[in-house]
TrEMBL record:
<comment type="similarity">
    <text>Belongs to the nitroreductase family.</text>
</comment>
<dbReference type="GO" id="GO:0034599">
    <property type="term" value="P:cellular response to oxidative stress"/>
</dbReference>
<dbReference type="InterPro" id="IPR033877">
    <property type="entry name" value="Frm2/Hbn1"/>
</dbReference>
<dbReference type="GO" id="GO:0016491">
    <property type="term" value="F:oxidoreductase activity"/>
</dbReference>
<dbReference type="InterPro" id="IPR000415">
    <property type="entry name" value="Nitroreductase-like"/>
</dbReference>
<dbReference type="GO" id="GO:0005737">
    <property type="term" value="C:cytoplasm"/>
</dbReference>
<dbReference type="GO" id="GO:0005634">
    <property type="term" value="C:nucleus"/>
</dbReference>
<keyword id="KW-0963">Cytoplasm</keyword>
<protein>
    <recommendedName>
        <fullName>Nitroreductase domain-containing protein</fullName>
    </recommendedName>
</protein>
<feature type="domain" description="Nitroreductase">
    <location>
        <begin position="20"/>
        <end position="194"/>
    </location>
</feature>
<keyword id="KW-0560">Oxidoreductase</keyword>
<dbReference type="Pfam" id="PF00881">
    <property type="entry name" value="Nitroreductase"/>
</dbReference>
<dbReference type="InterPro" id="IPR029479">
    <property type="entry name" value="Nitroreductase"/>
</dbReference>
<keyword id="KW-0539">Nucleus</keyword>
Amino acid sequence: MGSTAVEFKNPATSTLLEVVKARRTYYGLKAESPISDDAIESIVQDSVLHVPSSFNTQTSRVVLLLKEEHQKVWDIAIGAMEGLVAAGAVPKEMFENHTKPKLEAFRAAYGTVLFFVDYESLAPIKEKFAIYADKFDPFALESNAMSQYLVWLALEAEGFGANLQHYSPLIDDQVTKTWNLPASWKLDAQLVFGVPTSGAGEKTFAPIEDRFKVFGK
């Protein structure tokens, strides 16, 4: 199943797909920005407003942390891991040689986008459509994932590098307290971004023939 050159009706389609193809994971980041903070805010805000959700439930909640506020979330993560070391749950050598340098690298970036889901807001729709009640939580998570991907694409298109992290539930309580967030907001992911200081790792693909099929062509 080889790829062939195609012509799209809208040139923006090609541009969008090029952005998708160019997206990578960058771990080496520095605390600089190629665009204004207002532009970053606009990217994140538009994702909150325009990413679709099941039954238009709009369950995603997003917090943008920049500069010193961004550093706080990784100080929280470092502190939480130090607590696990002190409790004997994590080997000190592993923390010092691997975990801590990784967390400090995240801290050295420019910003973090925190992605939450407000599952409690789904109570009315679950009651109204009881037969689908067990589906709405996964649907909400899918919508949140779309927001994560959109923000990642847009930030990278503007010259950032980024990586997506998942430190829940380790940091959840302290994050809620630090930024006085509603208890119903459940943290799902943290997107770290900054100007890349090194290239991305090699990107490999499983055979597309095992992952994609076409019928009716």
